[in-house]
Amino acid sequence: MVGRRRSTAPVHLRHLGPERCGRPDRARRPHLGRGLRIVSSSPQLHGFDDGQALAEALASAIAGQLRVAIETRGEALLAVSGGSTPKRLFELLSQQDLNWSRVTITLVDERWVPDSDERSNARMVEALLLQHKAADAEFVPLYVEAATPEAGIAEVRTRVGALKHPFDVVVLGMGPDGHTASFFPGGDRLREALDLSNTAQVLPMRAPGAGEPRITFTLRELLQAHTLYLHVQGNDKRDVLAQAEQPGSALPIANVLRAGRQLDIYWCP
Ligand SMILES: O=C1O[C@H](COP(=O)(O)O)[C@@H](O)[C@H](O)[C@H]1O
Fold first, then answer.
1. Measured in angstroms, how far is the CA atom of residue 95 from the centroid of ligand 1?
2. Hey, is 180 helix, strand or coil?
3. CA distance 169 to 37
4. Is 121 in the pocket of ligand 1 (CB under 6 A)?
5. Domains in the chain, ordered, with CATH?
6. What is the DSSP code (8-state) at residue 102?
7. What is the pLDDT of residues 16-47, one digit of tens each?
8. Alpha helices by DSSP H, the chain
9. For ligand 1, is residue 85 a contact (CB within 6 Å)?
10. ipTM of this model?
11. Distance CA 21, CA 75 (A)
C-alpha cells in the first residue's frame, strides 16, 4: 500500500505537519547500495494516511526483523505494547508468514490484572496476536497470580530473566499523557525505571493516571532492542511527540526520543 504512505523522510517531529506529507524525500534517506543505508540515530517518522496502511507497513516491517533474527540466531524475541492502538497491527501481524514456532512474544508492560479482565494487555495479545500463523508463538505474560506487582515481582523477574535478551524487536506505544510502557508522569518508580544505570529488567509502577498498578520493563532493557518502533495514532499524540521533542521535556516519552538510538516512529492521524 505504498500509495497510501505519506512520508518516510527522517524529519524532526516538530517539522512534520500534514503539509510535509507527500512523496518520500529520498534525497534525505541515503542508500549505500543493496540492503545498506545510513542509519540515523535520530527518530525517523513514517507517516501514513490511516491505521490500516500503517498497520500493514508495520506488520510487514516487524515480520522482516523477526525473520532476520530467526535466520541469524535461530529464534526471535518480540515485545509489544498494550492499550488500544495495536489492535489492527496484531491482527495483521498474526497472519505474517514466518516460523512463529521460533518466536517468543512478551509485553513491554502490563496492568496488574488477570487475563480474564478486559483491561489486561495479555488478554488482547491472546485474542488478536496469538492467532492464525502466530498461534505457534510462545507467549510470556508479565502478570502472575499475586495480589500486587510488588508481591509478584520476584516470580516475574525469574520469568523474564529466562528470556534471551536483548529483544530483537520492541514496539512501544504512547498514551496522550506522554507515557510509554508504564513510564507514567508522576509514577512512584519512574526515576528508577528511566535510570539507564539500573540493571533491573522489570519494575512495579503506580501512578495517578495509570488506573491499576502496573509492571513494566525498564527503559534500559527496552532501548537495548535491535529494532525499536514507536506506534502512534492521532493528531493529538503527534502534538505530544512534538512537545516531547522540546529540550528539557519531562514527558516520559522524551527519554526514548533523546536516547540517541535508531527509533522508527509509525504515525497516522
Ligand atoms: O496503558 C497502556 O497505554 C499505552 C498507550 O495505550 P493507547 O490505548 O493510548 O494506545 C500502551 O502503550 C501501554 O502498553 C499500555 O499498558
1. 23
2. strand
3. 19
4. yes
5. 2-268 (3.40.50.1360)
6. G
7. 433 333 333 333 333 222 333 334 568 999 99
8. 51-73, 87-93, 121-124, 149-161, 190-194, 219-223, 235-244, 254-257
9. yes
10. 0.99
11. 37
